[in-house]
Amino acid sequence: MLEDPSYNSVVRWSPDGDSFVVLEKFTKTILPKHFKHSNFASFVRQLNKYDFHKVRHNEESGEAPYGRDAWEFKHPEFRADRKDQLDNIRRKAPAPRKPPPTEDAFPASQQIVVLSESLNATNVQIQTLQEQYLELDRTNRLLVAEVLSLQKMLRAQSQASNELISHLNNMEDRRRNSRHSAQSSHSSHSGTNYHQGTLGLLPDGTDEPAPELRRARDILNGVSPDSQADRELERLSMAYHQNGSPAESAGSSVMYTHAGPQATLNVVHDPFSDPRHLVYPVGQTQGIDPFHADHIHNIPYSRPLSNPNVMTETPSQITPPPGKDQGGSLWRGKKPQILLVEDDKTCARIGSKFLTNMDCSVETARDGLEAVEKINTDADRFDLIFMDIIMPNLDGVSATAMIRMVSPQIPIIAMTSNIRQEDIQTYFQFGMNDVLAKPFTRDGMVRILKKHLTRMLKDPQSAGVLNDPNDPTSAAATAGGQQTAGGPGPPTGGYANATMAAAMQAAVNQAAQAQVKYEQTPIPSPSTTASWHSPGTTMQQVQQQQQHASPQLDQGGYMNAVGSGQGVGGMVLTPGGSQRGPGPGPGQQYAGYMQAGPGPVPRLPEMGGMGGADDRPEKRQRLYGPSQGGYVG
Amino acid sequence: MPDFGDHVDNGIFSQILEMDESDHDRDFSEPLVTNFFEQAEDTFEKMDRALAARDLNELSTLGHFLKGSSATLGFNKIRDSCQVVQQYGHKLTVDGVSEPDENICLKKIAEALQTAKVDTAELEKQMKRFFGTE
């Protein structure tokens, strides 16, 4: 623009080319159009900022060279012939006289305000979230507790139904036998407060109850709450309770009523004080079993046994099924959960039927893989596993080895027709606890259950238990006694013990020599149950012989077998004296072992009548009763 | 409890019958036995194929499989034949002595299979009579 002559009337270079002149016309016409300040002073100020300075003209030197109101501006770098220097013309940096602190102070403090504001907002947000979380937590607890209560109610109901069925059984039997008509008054007790006094008067178990009643019971048995979700729920609930009350030790119902408030101490609305949760005590009087396996299984395995006498306090006494089935009265509390691993459908069905008939809950797995999956899902779900050996996908021995990684304690029983001694040895080496020869029989299964689930038995004596009930290994401990009764296998717990294995091996070797090899006979003829049990008897005899030969070794094996004690490994090689078990001395104990052996099996046939025959209340009420205190250990 | 002769182990089979609701309501044993015969027929077919293919391993597995269920039901004759199939499938005699000659093994298996089929057919007839499902 400066160079364009047409604008000479507005602005132009000075003759020297080192300054430019803004003429009057610029100030009057251009400025108002293009500069918002519309005043020349502002324009000059802007120019000053770019280091243009007004060229002063001495008034005295004559009249202004460019006319009135013309302004000449000069910049050292702004020259008509030096366009390359234009880049050097810049707006000047802010005047240094303005102190920087004051300039920054305002934004900084503003920043702090903004930050603290957002912080506050976040805090509020977090608080809201926390409240929501607590609310959800409370709701969740509430729901879990609610579901548990419902489950308990359901169990109580089903137990009540069981009682009713039992009662109806009784009634029918009585009617059938046309006696004890006076007992009918008991029907008014509606199942919760049965007195077992009637039991002694009940007919013996030979009468078959009506099929409807049986079916009803089967239905009840079939709907046992054993789904995975239930377990998770229980665990959840336990976790809640444990958070709040780590000191609460007893695995009793007390835990459920007290733990809640502690856990939610700082919560204003305590969900556990919700009146709805008073459902629980109600349920308790109806025969809810606080020592239900669901709870029991949350207790460490080695917990000492609580006082068995506790159970006499329970208000609920429940009539057992009057000799309907032998198994109906086997258990004093929760039905054992059995996992039956068997690829053959026929065997699985028969096995399940036998077990169900013995009042156990049965789940089946078609192969070892499925079994391992089930155990991995919930290691504590089952009380005992029957494991076929030869199966597709994963054989029973491998499956056992895998299960042992998760669940070292659960009794695993090999079910197999391969009962050659070396096979049996393999089973034990891989962690199996016993062998049930195939084809299995009901009695064989009963024997195994009684031997390995002694702690769950209504009447542990029936399993020939010799040992201290406080011994957590009591289930295993019956092995010694039971072995005589026909178990072909060595006792429980042996798999973990090298010495035991050695003793077994010795015994087994001797047995192999002393006895016909089992599968050498073209086919073992299991025409009777007894014939399948013969290896056990043989082994026992052999062990007896062995004791003479090498008492120390045998003692070790035997001691372990009886489980008289304090851990499987500790005392194996001590022939006498050191055991703190109930057994008096090795010799005597051995005698006891011999005596106890034959006990269980001959007694088996009597089991059916047992519930009816045994009218001692402390025995009877264990059948379904809620107070399985004795079991806790 | 009828007498099935040496076909059936009465002790074992009666235990299964005891699982029924009553003698007139064989809800448990009847389908079990029926299933077994279906299973047996199926297994025999597989054995025939395995025999044609000279697949001793498969024969042994099949023999073991049917042995288990037949033994559990107390069907001794069938079980015994299955045992033979299983053993020779492992190239062993019934006494557990090694029998390296595959032809002998296959011949023994073929014989045992034939016996098993006959016994099974006979027993099935008896069972149908017993359960009244003829």
From TrEMBL, chain A:
Q: Where does this protein have compositionally biased stretches of type Polar residues?
A: 526-539
The organism is Triangularia setosa
Which SUPFAM superfamilies has this protein been placed in?
A: CheY-like, Winged helix' DNA-binding domain
- List UniProt keywords, sorted A-Z: Coiled coil, DNA-binding, Nucleus, Phosphoprotein, Transcription, Transcription regulation, Two-component regulatory system
Give the signal peptide, or none.
Answer: none
What's the chief localization of this chain?
Answer: nucleus
Chain intervals with Low complexity compositional bias:
180-190, 472-482, 540-551
Location of the region described as Disordered in the Swiss-Prot/TrEMBL record:
82-105, 173-210, 460-493, 517-551, 595-633
What is this protein identified as? Transcription factor
Q: Which Pfam families match?
A: HSF_DNA-bind (PF00447), Response_reg (PF00072)
Recorded GO terms, molecular function?
DNA-binding transcription factor activity; phosphorelay response regulator activity; sequence-specific DNA binding
Provide the positions where the record notes the PTM 4-aspartylphosphate: D388
Which GO biological process categories is it annotated with? regulation of transcription by RNA polymerase II
The subcellular location is: Nucleus
Q: Tell me which InterPro entries the record gives.
A: CheY-like_superfamily, HSF_DNA-bd, Sig_transdc_resp-reg_receiver, Sig_transdc_resp-reg_Skn7, WH-like_DNA-bd_sf, WH_DNA-bd_sf
Taxonomic lineage of the native organism: Eukaryota, Fungi, Dikarya, Ascomycota, Pezizomycotina
GO CC terms: nucleus
Q: Which residues form a coiled coil?
A: 119-146
Q: Which residues form the Response regulatory domain?
A: 337-453
Automatic annotation (TrEMBL), chain B:
Q: Which residues carry this modification: Phosphohistidine?
A: H64
Q: Which CDD domains match?
A: HPT
PROSITE patterns recorded: HPT
Q: Does the keyword DNA-binding apply?
A: no
In terms of domain of life, where is this protein from? Eukaryota
Please indicate if the UniProt record lists Phosphoprotein as a keyword. Answer: yes
Q: Name one GO biological process term.
A: phosphorelay signal transduction system
MF terms per GO, please?
Answer: histidine phosphotransfer kinase activity; protein histidine kinase binding
Instruction: Identify one Pfam family in the record.
Output: Hpt
Q: Which PANTHER family match?
A: PHOSPHORELAY INTERMEDIATE PROTEIN YPD1
Q: Which keywords does the record carry?
A: Phosphoprotein
> Where is each HPt domain found?
25-130
Q: Which SMART domains match?
A: HPT
Protein's UniProt name: Multistep phosphorelay regulator
GO CC terms of this entry: cytoplasm; nucleus
